[in-house]
Amino acid sequence: MYTVEELRALLIRERADFELIRQAAPILSAKDAEPYYDVARAAPALVLQSDRGLTVCVCSANRGRLDFEAMKAAYGFTKLKMADRKKVLKQTGYEVGAIPLVGLELDCIFDESLLEYDYIYGGTGDPLTTLKIAPGDVKRLNRVIGRL
Predict the structure, then answer these.
(1) How far apart are CA 63 and CA 45, in angstroms?
(2) Cβ of 18: how many Cβ atoms within 10 Å?
């Protein structure tokens, strides 16, 4: 688990194109995010439970619901669902809703539609800090096993 400062150091070391944005309160909805960034560019990091353990899915907020059946077939999982909040916290150290876009030691499914943006916005592990980052860096800095 990284602190915001450790995440900053990682991103600098990896030469990522990023900015950390502080906000006064946690972002719990699109309306909360509007003062800070274009919500069409939001990219939540969702933690999924599969038969192989936890997997992070970095996807566009514009995508809508994930098709778990199609994802199971595409990536060879026998089971796939949203991970339990307590399990996510125990295994990653992060609360659901503040999962960082990079820095997790989990396999990743990456939404290729995010590459159409110059920057995307997502978690840092700290509910009061948002990561603005080039989507190619998110893809490069994760262990991508599949693409949406």
Answers:
(1) 13
(2) 20
Rounded Cα distance between 67 and 147, Å, is: 13
**pTM for the whole structure:** 0.93
Report yes or no: 136 and 13 within 8 Å, Cβ to Cβ: no
> Contact, 130 vs 27, CB < 8 A?
yes
Strand, helix or coil at 76? coil
Give pLDDT tens digits for 54-103: 999 999 999 889 999 999 999 999 999 999 999 999 999 999 989 999 99
CA atoms of 87 and 34, how far apart (whole Å) = 30
- Using the structure block, give the residue that is written with the tokens 């077939």: 73
The answer to whether the beta carbons of residues 43 and 122 sit under 8 Å apart is yes
